[in-house]
Design a protein that fits this description.
Its cofactor is FAD. It catalyses: 2 a Fe(II)-siderophore + NAD(+) + H(+) = 2 a Fe(III)-siderophore + NADH. It is a multi-pass membrane protein. Belongs to the ferric reductase (FRE) family. There is one protein chain. Helix 3 packs antiparallel against helix 4. The protein folds into two domains: 243 residues, Nucleotide-binding domain of ferredoxin-NADP reductase (FNR) module (Rossmann fold, 3-Layer(aba) Sandwich), CATH 3.40.50; 77 residues. By secondary structure, the chain is of the alpha/beta class. It is 32% helix and 13% strand.
């Protein structure tokens, strides 16, 4: 999914992986943005300052939905840094499916490698904020987290994950598909209308401009006819698309007083920025069950070969997302031929 923040740059669109799950959170779309470059640093600074609202434009998401990992007995997810993002969505999908009695859920092992212990807060995002400890009761989830740059836990709590809510406005519009609420029917109507208008314009031009000049003697130049045809096409598209835009704006203005942010449907929606959970750490939310499934290692890297080869006699789906070297190392292990139950899949952020 591409994200644009006009207050930072109206031209920059940055791709991010969707971390939310449409089954658990049908009204929300989430991405995780790590503060590294100039654009993300500015975004972090804006969110850290007392602002009332933040306008964001998105395009996407792109890519097909896939649940092929359900065919395996065990899923091993290997991530490096922000590569944990796609696995958050997968885990949330399995949490949803675990509540369906007839659905078989594979065992899950998450091997997450981080440089700093501050990055461990990303594990708190495995569950949505509305999650509860019972969400993990039906899952066999084991998390092995590795902090490579530190020998012991840090005591710095100044950069804990916080929840910041913005006050919605009555004029805020819900996110809608690029084709609008009428989807493909709307697109077909626009195309059909523009084609019909093009035929009408060509008929009018032929009857009242070309015919009086040559009287069917075909003496008009081909270049003139070509220019008129192109002009008719442009006018047809512009008129039809413009009418659709104005019609949509009229509909939105009609419904503006009824449009509310999902958070605004609760008492929290009447609160100002930071009035709710301004400094509330996600660890205080019902995520303590994650701590029971998590084991943190400091000052070393995971022995991936041992961890993959020790599971015998079952179908093992190995998903990896992270730096190029990490993906190549896991691919080499799975293709070594020393185990025939490993099924490798790489998730790359490259475009």
């Amino acid at each position: 999914m591409f994200v644009n923040v006009p207050s930072i740059s109206k031209l920059q669109w940055h791709p991010f992986t969707v971390s939310s799950n449409s089954n658990m959170e049908p009204d929300k779309l989430s991405v995780i943005i790590k503060s590294e470059g100039s654009w993300s640093t500015k975004l972090h600074q804006m969110l850290s300052s007392p602002i009332e609202r933040l306008d964001v434009s998105i395009e996407g998401p792109y890519g097909p939905q896939s649940n092929h990992f359900l065919r395996h007995d065990t899923i091993v997810m290997v991530s490096g840094g922000s590569g944990i993002t796609p696995f958050i969505s997968i885990i949330r999908e399995l949490i949803f499916r675990s509540k369906i009695s007839q659905c078989k859920i594979p065992d899950m092992i998450l091997i997450a490698v981080f440089k700093s212990s501050l990055d461990l807060t990303m594990l708190d995002l495995l569950l949505p904020m509305t999650g509860s400890p019972s969400d993990l009761s039906n899952l066999k989830l084991h998390i092995e987290a590795y902090v490579t740059k530190e020998k012991e836990p840090t005591t710095d709590n100044s950069k804990r994950v916080r929840s910041i809510l913005f006050k919605p406005l009555p004029t805020d519009k819900p996110m809608a598909p690029i084709l609008g609420p009428n989807s493909w029917f709307w697109l077909a109507a626009i195309i059909s209308s523009s084609f019909i208008m093009f035929l009408i314009l060509i008929g009018i031009i032929t009857r009242f401009y070309i015919y009086p000049r040559d009287h069917n003697k075909y003496e008009s130049s081909a270049s003139t006819k070509a220019v008129l045809n192109v002009l008719a096409i442009c006018v047809s598209i512009a008129a039809t698309a413009g009418a659709a835009v104005f019609w949509n704006k009229k509909q939105y203005s009609r419904e503006a007083t009824h449009v509310q942010n999902i958070e605004g449907q609760t008492p929290l929606g009447s609160l100002n920025l930071r009035a709710y959970n301004g400094d509330r750490e996600l660890e205080s939310l019902p995520h303590q069950s994650l701590a029971q499934a998590t084991k943190v290692h400091y000052g070393g890297r995971p022995d991936l070969k041992r961890m993959l080869f020790e599971r015998k006699g079952e179908s093992l789906g190995v998903l990896v997302c992270g730096p190029k070297k990490l993906r190549h190392d896991v691919a080499a292990i799975c293709s070594s031929g020393l185990a025939d139950n490993l099924h490798f899949e790489s998730i790359s952020f490259s475009w």
